[in-house]
Write a structure and sequence with these properties.
By secondary structure, the chain is of the alpha/beta class. The protein has a domain of 181 residues. The longest helix is centred in the N-terminal third of the chain and has 23 residues.
Amino acid sequence: MEPRRGQQHMSGENGDGNRPNSSKKRGKSRDHSRRNSGNRNRNNRRPKRYGGPSISSLKERHAERITAMDQKANQRFEQSERPMGFPEDLDEPQTFHFTWDTNPVPLKDEEALAKQVLRKGEFGWLDDARVDELAQIVKNHNMTLDQALSLRSALMQQKTVYGHGRLRSRAKDMLRLYREGVSVVDISQRFDGPPMNVFRLILAEMRWSKTKIKESLREPSRLKQRERDEFEAAEAADRVSNVDQGESQEKADLFEDILADWFEEQGVRLRRQPEMVREQKQELGRPVRTPDILFLDHVHINGSPVAWIDAKHFYGADVEFQRKKMAKQMDRYIEEWGSGAVVYRHGFSANLFMAACTLLDANVLDLQPLDSDETSA
């Protein structure tokens, strides 16, 4: 009499020892199915959209806040508590209206350039051949070479910040190569990180303290010969994380002066950042809220109230890291004085948006002093 199916003997294998275990087979089949499903999902997934949400959706989402901050800017002279930076003996404010023509860069052009301005392991200044190459590329897009180079800087900054954790996880490997005689610049190209960040991580992996690293890089003469040579080479090959940022700051300061001078020539009363910095250091111990320009009159630009202005000596890219960093800074000014504006030396993306901020380019300004300074540099 044959045994019933329910009475069949089961151990690690079937009774005849040859048939595979059906439960294992089903498990493998499920795993295979899940893997195939995951691959299908990844293959069907749409590529991530470049830039932030559409500007129209953001305007709709932040409409109430924009209205409230516009009202705050218009009523700032009527507050019972004097806003920060306002002098005690302020005369009755006048009202100025300006039309400021702008020429934003279409998002599709910025996206196209973003794919071509940055290469793996490239964090330094571009040689003439690479600049000439980009100059030819921009001819096919609604961007200038200066805008493309500034976009490249924004993308490098984002790549540096977002990729630091990945870079730090490879510190042991970088130190091993360094001890084998590989240069910091070559290591940075291999691991796709800024040379100075790579050098700092190597020194930290050598058990240097943060203080020792900071002081040694400020005074390279304190370094041993190899470290000094590596520092100089890394600094020259890095425009993102290098120690000396003095030249860039000088140009930014000059741009701020040109902008403030323009408004004063129109008769607008204002306060400049340096005097507000001094004042807040004396009263509060440190600068707290210091836009480049704080208006002491009512100013309306393109129909929107502007209580303050910040000048940026770069292109306003629709790049996440720069966008979030800018919004965080501007929010401090908006909370104190209401709506304001940002003026970008090299223009801005048509899809860039910050609630309660009017975005402007430098088209109405005479930048000859700045251009002369850059030519002589």
